[in-house]
Amino acid sequence: MERLFEFVANHPFLVGTFAVLLALFIRNETRRGGRTVTAQQLVDMVNRENALVLDVRDRKEFQAGHIVEAVNIPQASLDSRLDELKKHKDRPVVVVCRLGQSAGAAGTLLRKSGFEQVSRLSGGMTEWRNQNLPVVKG
Asked: Domain 34-130 is of which CATH architecture?
């Protein structure tokens, strides 16, 4: 650890450049997949803006419990099934996965396909369930 501080002190330009590039990379990756929303923000978006909840988990996980009126298109088949979502282009879309990490890739695909209002649920279904919010089985 002592050598790390010595390196930082001896190479401030290099370390500063690395920090800026890392921050820009993180910012770019989060923007590409859409902004993150909390579970409460998702509820508000569904109630006030008629947001579409797109669940990208596999069918088995979806049937074990999902958000009311969520549309299930597994991540692996999203690219080939985008036509099913075309009629919802004018609505906000919130992408939901298990932990909130793989929703970013689905969000990026949706944005590239012309969807402008794409968000992803922070923490995914795990966070939704941790907050004891309702789920539908089947």
From this structure: 3-Layer(aba) Sandwich (3.40)
